[in-house]
Design brief:
Rossmann fold, 243 residues, DNA synthesis, alpha/beta, four-stranded parallel beta sheet, two-stranded antiparallel ribbon, 33% helix, 8 helices
Length: 243
């Protein structure tokens, strides 16, 4: 994100049109959902291409007469995560149409974005555009989500919610995010208690957090020496003992 992929699309489109080529531009409907104009793609410098056709799946291209197409440009290819995406791209190419696709290769969690792994594997030529990392100014590889809580694996947003980040800074951030969780996990120790009452014994294990939630300390548990006290403890902990 912010690498200039839409600008590259605009430049390729304008160059081919100036050569008299028949160029058709498609984009995923998600671009409209994030505030994009229905029939345009717009780069961050304000340059645009008009007459763009929004699609939900690439199979919708079959509704068009592609015989006159010289070049097809497809924006936000990562959102076309359907079984027909790769077959459609291959079909267009085999029919003699020059196909250019533009999109993100990884998610903000640094995993392959939808069908992009297969798209890259099938591509004859790949050009990776890299913006500057918002932290260190190095080459960014990932769009880090900084917008709070995501509402799913795919959260459509812009630079107000995503920032370009390099690998090193990304993994440093991941370590910082995991550190508090690891500290909590390490602090939540497990304790084993054994009670001997009325001719039978009970052994069970609980964690510090379980004891705290039930309102007990370790010393208080160790001080319990009656069957009634033990029964109350087990009920407070939500433990069922079958004798």
């Amino acid at each position: 994100m912010g690498a200039g992929k839409t600008k590259a699309l605009v430049l390729i489109h304008d160059q081919l049109v100036s050569e008299g080529k028949e160029v058709v531009v498609f984009k995923h409907v998600n671009d409209i959902q994030r505030g994009g104009q229905v029939d345009k793609v717009t780069a961050r410098d304000g340059s645009t291409v008009s007459g763009v056709v929004p699609l939900s799946t690439l199979s919708e291209i079959l509704f068009f007469n592609t015989d006159q197409f010289h070049t097809v440009l497809i924006d936000e290819i990562q959102f076309f995560d359907d079984a027909d995406t790769i077959p459609m791209l291959n079909a267009l190419t085999i029919s003699g149409i020059d196909v250019h696709v533009f999109g993100l290769d990884v998610t903000s969690d640094n995993t392959t974005f939808g069908v992009m792994g297969n798209v890259l594997a099938q591509s004859d030529r790949i050009e990776k555009l890299k913006p500057k990392c918002y932290r260190c100014e190095g080459d960014a590889r990932i769009s880090s989500f900084v917008g709070g809580e995501k509402d799913g694996d795919v959260h459509v947003g812009d630079l107000d919610e995503y920032k370009p980040i390099c690998r090193r800074c990304y993994f440093e951030d991941m370590k910082l995010k995991k550190a508090p969780q690891q500290q909590v996990k390490a602090a939540d120790k497990e304790h084993t208690f054994k009670f001997n009452c009325a001719g039978f014994s009970i052994t069970f294990s609980v964690t510090d957090s379980q004891l705290a939630a039930a309102g007990y300390t370790i010393d208080e548990v160790n001080d319990i020496n009656t069957e009634e006290g033990m029964t109350n403890l087990l009920e407070d902990l939500g433990l069922e003992i079958f004798i």
